[in-house]
Amino acid sequence: MPGLFRYPADSVATLGPALVREGVRAVLLFGVPRRKDATGSPASAEGSAVARATRLLRRHAPELVVFTDVCLCAYTDAGHCGIVRRGRLDPAATVRRLGEIAIAHARAGAEFVGPSAAMDHQVAAVRSALDDAGFPEVGILAYSAKFASAFYGPFREAEGSSPAFGDRRGYQFDPRMDREALAAFVRDQEEGADILMAKPAMTSLDLLARARRRVDRPLAAYQVSGEYAMIHAAGERGWIDGRAARDESLIAIRRAGADLIVSYFAREIAKEARAER
Ligand code: PBG
Ligand code: ZN
Predict the structure, then answer these.
(1) Res 6: pLDDT
(2) Which of 21, 29, 135, 257 could form a disulfide with 130 if both were Cys (CB 3.0 to 4.6 A apart)?
């Protein structure tokens, strides 16, 4: 995607301080492993790209808040967010693995972990895994309303995390399931989540607004890769004013109730805000 790159883990030793100087305050890390296996073992390895990058950021850019994504889709050969056994998802084995991954990230120094596998009770499982391992202070960013979406396409290509068979509709919400998605915010809060997120952002504005009245944790919205792609591509072609559309999209997400926004525009927005001050 124009303007976006995958970085070697070691490069964050210089990238992290550059982001801080530009005014970025937090990052969300995803890893691209060299090999994949049935249980996604590279995800919880001490030397995984995410763990190494987290350690380097803590050391070289301590001002930056480090969030890590905790999922299996990029690490398993099946390419699903959970562990697949005999063609079926194994939720119990999956949440155990998510706990192990979260602990590995916490050991590396992550301040927040984001379990994003859309498995039932993943927040409770990760919370107790972290507590038992001595990391009660590490927070949880819950992907509460996570819809099965066409807008994830560019991310999956960059991350190499497309399912090898089937799709994710068995565990991500159908866009029609607004009541279930809303209930997920309440459930994740009860399970101990610290921040509750909706994804994609622009197709979840109604849920953010409704969730705002039902939960009292900070709300986040993830403006996903396809949202960035749409705005960027149309702007590049001169079909819309890309910068104005970008700002308008972020304002609407805030207006709906998001306290935090995960966005691929973060770096350019931070830079521009700096320049204006
Ligand atoms: C799944 C995951 C997804 C994204 C990040 N982690 C969704 C998916 O592939 O089903 C998408 C993010 C984006 O599109 O920017 N754990
Ligand atoms: Zn996943």
Answers:
(1) 96
(2) 135
